[in-house]
Amino acid sequence: MRGSTARTPIHRSPYCAGVSIWRSRQALFLLVRRDLSQKYRKLRLGYLWAILEPLGMSVTMWFVFEILLGGRKMGGQPYYLFLTVAILPWWWFTSGISSATKAFIGFSRTLPVSVLPTQFSVVRVLITRTFDFLFSLPLILFAMLVTWSFPGINIGFFFLAFVVQLILMYGLSLLVASISVLVPDFARIVRIVLRAAFYLSPVLYSLALVPESARSAAAINPLAGILALYRVGWWPEEHVPMFGYAISGSVALICVIAGIITFLRLEHRILKEA
Amino acid sequence: MARIHCDPSLGNALEFEDVTLTMPRRRRRKGGGRSDRLRRLAQETSKVDEQVYGNLTFTVAPGEAVALIGRQPKDSTVELIRLAAGTLIPDHGHVRRRDVILPILRRAGLVNAKLTVRQNIFVIGILLGLSPEQINERMDWIVTTAGLSRALDSYARACPPELRRRIVWTVSMAADAKAYATQGSLIVGDDSYREVGWQHVEELKEQGATFLVAGQNARVMERFCTRALVIGDGQVILDGTVEEALNLVGRGQVKEDEDDAAEDAVDLLDSSAERDEWRAD
Known about the structure:
Chain A is an all-alpha fold. Chain A is built from 12 helices and no strands. Chain B has 2 domains: 144 residues, Rossmann fold (3-Layer(aba) Sandwich); 69 residues.
């Protein structure tokens, strides 16, 4: 009845961790599914909340910046769509990174007895958030119908932006999760940084409105490049100059490498804290 | 930093080479105010790194059952079990293993009271690297071996600690590893269940499984283990038969581990991720 099976070996190097996460993908998706259903189960409107929350936020922002302060145009038109296209990825980013601060702490009791790779809980949190983001995408469709404006061929960049953001978030999640185990204050720092990043990233405004002199400084933020890529499907003029993409991209790459290295350096200490 | 991986070409089941490990220990403190000031005056720190093992070297051949015994109560063997299984990484030195070594630590909290027994079996199985299908496949075996037929769909909070230990043990054994590192959990349960346990582990030993046994009483070690290592001050001070080890340490010293009952339930399922979420304004 109990045949022998190939089991997941314990691997700690990044490549091997990837392989063993892939092998434990069934368990991963079981837990992600459970995380998602757990999150929405108690709510009457269930999965609709994945849409309703960002909807509320984007309508508020639109009302404030288009109706109340509408004198100066802050970005592409129609502004409501302009806002929605960027707010959803931003939401994904901020909720993913802030829940990554708790990824290891929340599961620390399982680490001494688990043969799953140490990164497992970080990847799980990230994938759960990614599904939240995917569930909220119909909101963009809604915004397109309301404003009756549809994307051109450039919409392909939307998927590129998705992939780049996913990779960036993987690195940052590892970074944030590892440091917050050892320095409990770090979660609060992350919160402040994320709040600042909301205004520093071109979510509410277009990078084209930033004065020429400050534009390359603004492009250091990897989200600047990513958000521009999300938007070019509707507003081709949102394209950041190649130079800007290069800066954003290399900063993103540095973040990812820093995240992986930090995790590998701190892994033995994370395990000791468990 | 030494990384841990399985090396199928290795001749031994497990090799420790010059392993050094320090663990952060927090001193438990009482009182505030005055004693706090005194502590500051004495420059006492609340968190100290304590060396658990220094230059530990030994090998375990496949099929051996090795008893790990601490010379004194302060000589901890839990970290040795975790190092062997790879859920701890040594500060220096290397730990090499041929196959996966399954860590089975005695933890009352491994069973989550908020879930049903069936869900618990899944959670523990996943932690031990089983896929959901493998768990389903082995469910019958787990249920009959642990004697769960009536409790399977009731909540684990209704289970006595006795039964919880059995659940953990049975799922671990269902994982079918070639090597086990056990801390107080080779043989668990009451007398009738211990017999079931004995039968199973002895069968595994005959099939050539490797065992590291820590935190069990002298009788269990005498009956099961073929070799003993005594750890004192972070070193192997004796490598011989179980009898020699017990003579050195004293039979009374070797006690079965108690559960740390105060431990929280394992929250593999109930992630804290959705709690106190922060929104962009």
